[in-house]
Protein: Response regulator
Amino acid sequence: MPKLLLVDDEALVRRSMQKTLLRKGFVVETASNCTEGLAEFEAAFKSNTPFDLALLDLNMPNFEGIPVHAAGLDLLSKLIEIDPDLTAIVLTAYDEVDTAKEAVQRGARSYFVKGREQGLVDLINEILV
Structure:
């Protein structure tokens, strides 16, 4: 079963996505900000149980706990430093597509505009197959 890390500061969005992904057979760990996401990722990597894929929200609290536009890009960079082979998808809202494209240039495999969770499941399956 693929192991996913989902980092999103919106609790309702995070829970909804997690439930959808769990129903589809994924193992899902969650975090609500960059600091928690980095800690989860490092712990899994150090214990030789790395994540197969990371789902990172673009806008969330940064490493200082302050909500910042595109803080997810900073988290993406740190995760790729730890695991250069990481597969990541950046989660975004409609008005952030340009920033999401920048995330792909920085190493994310793709981006996904939030709203249709089945589309996210399809994208994950396409990437991991």
About this structure: The helical segments are 11-23, 34-46, 71-82, 97-105, 117-128.
